[in-house]
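Hi support team,

I'm opening this ticket because the web form for multi-chain structure prediction keeps timing out on my end. I have pasted the exact lines I submitted so you can reproduce it. The total is 600 residues across two entries, so I didn't expect it to be a heavy job. Is there a limit I'm missing, or should I split the entries? Thanks in advance, R.K.
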Amino acid sequence: MKNQYQRFVLTRAGQAVVVVLLAYVLTFLVISVLPGDSITNSLRDPQRGLSEEEIQRIVAFYGLDKPVVVQLVLSLGRFLSGDLGFSLQSNLPVAQLIGDALPSTLALASSALALAVIFAVAIAYGAHYLPGKWASLLRSVPSLFLSVPNFVIGLVLIELFAFRLHAFTTIDTNSAAATVFAAVTLAIPVSAPLAEVFIASLDHESRQEYAVVARSRGLSEARLFVQHLAKPSALPAVAMVALIVGELLGGAVITETIFGRDGIGTLVQKAVTGEDQPVLQAVVSLSAIVFVAVNLVADLASPLVDPRIELREVVDA
Amino acid sequence: MTSTLAITPFRRAGAGARRTTVGIPPTVVLSFLVVLVMVLWSLLPGMFTSFSPVEGATAGKLEAPSSAHWFGTDYLGRDLYSRVVFGTASSVSSALVAVLIGLVVGSAIGLASGFGGGWVDAVLGRFVDVLLAIPGFLLAVVIVSSLGFQTINAAIATGVSAVAVFARLMRAEVLRIRGAAFVEASYLEGGTLLHALLKHILPNAYRPVLVLAVLQFGTSILVIASLAFLGYGDPPPASDWGLLVASGKTYPTAPWLVYAPALVIVITVLAVNRISRWLRKVK
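Hello R.K., no limit was hit. The queue was backed up. Here is the completed structure from your submission:
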């Protein structure tokens, strides 16, 4: 068993490294090979105001005068040694730009994650335990949450709470109140799939024999939920954590833009408009690393948390 | 993005046990009507409005919704309802293009993976892992920024970011059906691989794939609207729904400029999602 778990860990970790490297390569190819303005052309754009000398320096650093394969090897080599290059817009190291933007996005994403879990648990609990009409109403909430675009939620919240009720201002964008409303915007679409999974697993678990037995022992529904149902119902959601991290990172682009927050999302947005390929490459690769790492941890932990999962199946799958 | 839900084994396990409903629920009928209106708006926008979507009377700018201008007018006095109707074709059909790309490419990868097995499966499996590892919206943003800011490129980008979910579902379906007794029996009777694919696998896999495609259609409308909102679609005077919301938000005194197109997006996606859920339940 222990041996098997070691093999499982090694297989999964190996796969994770391969996926991260390939994600870097794929992103590089999308950015530099697809048609559209080449980097060298866009560097000569007079709006950038770069001198010929600066252009030559950038071309030499990124190997832009060499074939794409060489550029890729250079870029990947720097990435593996921890160098993310420098921004074509501000000339600052990309690592510094990301480091500056990260705390704000982490605050936003972690509060959004917490809110999403709270929303999802509340919806699922209500959908399972409230009487008929309310329950069916709550069951349709996830589908509603999935149908409203992120930017609409943000604009409605700003209109209602900033302009009408003055609960926060759109000027002081990093205040606690503004962060809460931005987090709600980001949390709503994320809470929908979580709630769906919670509802389905709660329905499933409460029909199991152990739940029937516990009820026949005279356990109240509330205690049954806390003592027996909550843990197994939450397990399927653990497998979704990586997916949710991806959603949070993607949603941050829109949410930060609307609320005027500085962060990874606005960094991406500025890099897109400013054709700042090194910044895009770094942000996308780092999000792939985060996604893969979270997925790996969830994968490695699941057989430990839930002994019903058979390792052989997981290894061969 | 979130549609991967539909293919987690957990949800699917209970799907067979659900009772089939007789007749079509009224909300589903309503949803089909909404989709019908969207199709008509896309094909014959001129039939539904007498105003031009690009020319307006500056005298009547920023007017609130009225019987003449159902959604009000914008800062150039253009009729917003007309702009929404004329924006339907590119907002909705680009989502259709995105789904088709995801469906065709993803299914091909899934089929090859499931049938090929061995190293083919391993290689394609890693490729799908890579696509899944990059957050869907971020991937779409990078692709569209590389291809250029146009609605068709936004559609391609959205389609590529949907390839992975289709590939995963198709692979799982192939593996499930390929092992069934009736497929093995067809091999025993001398049936070829192609025969098994056309006669057994595709007919049995089409329903879950269809459910995912409809769900993905709703998601794609949202993703493309988000890209248009950020300005990565066709530039004005095009009137993609996301772009309408983005340009409306600069006029806080005229909230209908945001709410009307936003409501059209929400109603359309709700209808599409409702149809998808209905398809998942009925036999």
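A quick check on our side: Chain B has eleven helices and no strands. Let us know if the file doesn't open in your viewer.
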